[in-house]
Amino acid sequence: MPSTTEGRRICQIIKLKPEAEAEYLRVHKEVWPNVLAALERAHIVDYSIFYHKPLGLLIATMKYVGDDWARDSAINAQDEDTKRWWAMTDGMQESFIEGATGSGKDVPWWTEVPEVFRFEGTG
Asked: Which superkingdom, per the lineage (predicted)?
């Protein structure tokens, strides 16, 4: 059960290899249900990936509503379907982080981007 309704917003970026564009977009039209279930178990909601083609940039945004990001990320990284998904999609990407070798490792694969502005409005 999530510990907060506010949560933590996260934004991450990575480069999509140009030759992998069609395949990456295709597989994300039908993300494996077990991968989605693992995200929910890790208290990740409102997850989107945007693609800025001119720069080959993938931009992921999500909301984390748990109480221990490191623990939930580690648990998610042990999920067998998630590991298979990452093995497939990591090969389509280029990390901006020196020494990164793939998702779920000691060195982050996606680069976390700090939030510099937020406007939530009044409804």
From this structure: Eukaryota
Residue 83's closest CA among 53, 110, 103?
103
Q: Given CA atoms 21, 23, 26, 27 in this order, what sign does their dihedral have?
A: negative
Cα(65)–Cα(121) distance, rounded to whole angstroms?
Answer: 20
d(CA 58, CA 45): 18
Q: What is the pTM of this model?
A: 0.90
Distance CA 41, CA 58 (A): 24
- Angstrom distances, CA of residue 86 to CA of 60, 61, 83, 102: 14, 17, 5, 8
C-alpha to C-alpha distance for 51 and 23, rounded to whole angstroms: 13
What number does CATH give the domain 8-112?
A: 3.30.70.100
Closest Cα partner for 16 from 66, 91, 73, 72?
A: 91
